[in-house]
Specification:
Layout lengths: L1 H5 L7 H9 L2 H4 L5 H4 L5 E2 L5 E2 L2 H11 L9 E5 L5 H8 L3 E6 L2 H13 L6 E4 L14 E4 L8 H5 L4 E10 L4 E9 L2 E10 L14
Parallel strand pairs: 3-4, 3-6, 4-5, 6-7
Antiparallel strand pairs: 1-2, 7-8, 8-9
Bound molecules: S-adenosylmethionine.
The site of S-adenosylmethionine has 26 residues, from β2, α6 and β4.
């Protein structure tokens, strides 16, 4: 997976590649068959959700790297899903807060994170489009669900000293991974690449249909 899907697509950060080698993706998959779990595709989760394709997890993590690096960085993930992305961030040394709207998914993620030694990840249940202001500011925010625009509460909770937010922005069925960087009151935005994510359902996302 690391060699053929990540290194071959210009993911070069040794620490990030090591994190992908260490986190057992099959442990977080709903159907944990190792050959499938390490394939070049998303995997199904309960509640109609998915674990994203390994490459897109790596590309978004790489784009979200805070200016001071990952070790000790305060990081918010919106959309815990299986807990896989949270485990990658924990491997990188980040202080991870992750929020999920489906209580059952959060419970399963908690089980797998603990079973695999990731005891420090703080899991919340709720509408992550509002962020998690009690643990802000964040050096990095990764939103692993697609919204129509960047939720203002997330911009407000980003560290003003170069905090980065990465999120797929667009319609329900087609988005562009977007990177936001905050410098004081200035917010810089750039677009990375196309993606297809499940929708961010919430106050600052899409409505539940
Ligand atoms: N990062 C996850 C992983 O590593 O397994 C995959 C996340 S999946 C692509 C997107 C997740 O976002 C789903 O679990 C979905 O329930 C969740 N989600 C959607 N809207 C949300 C919201 N407003 N707040 C929190 N989680 C939300």
């Amino acid at each position: 997976m690391v060699r053929e899907q990540l290194e071959a697509r210009a993911i070069t950060d040794p620490a990030l590649l090591d994190a992908f080698r260490r986190v057992p993706r099959h442990a977080f998959a709903a159907e944990p068959e190792p050959p499938t779990a390490y394939g070049d595709h998303a995997l199904p989760l309960p509640a109609g959700q998915t674990i994203s394709q390994p490459y897109i997890v790596a590309a978004m993590t790489s784009a979200a790297q805070p200016p001071g690096g990952w070790r000790g960085a305060q990081v918010l993930e919106v959309g815990t899903g299986s807990g896989y992305q949270a485990a990658i961030l924990a491997e990188l040394g980040a202080e991870v807060v992750s929020i999920e709207r489906h209580r059952e998914l959060s419970r399963l993620a908690a089980e797998q994170l603990v079973a695999n030694g990731y005891h420090g990840v703080r899991l919340l249940v709720g509408d992550g489009s509002e962020g998690a202001p009690e643990w802000a500011p964040y050096d990095a925010i990764i939103v692993t669900a697609a919204g129509p625009s960047i939720p203002q509460p997330l911009i407000d909770q980003l560290a003003p000293s170069g905090g980065r937010l990465v999120m797929p922005i667009g319609s329900r069925d087609h988005q562009l991974v977007t990177v936001v960087e905050r410098h004081g009151s200035e917010v810089r935005t750039r677009q990375l690449e196309p993606a297809v994510f499940v929708p961010l359902i919430g106050e600052h996302g899409f409505t539940d249909e």
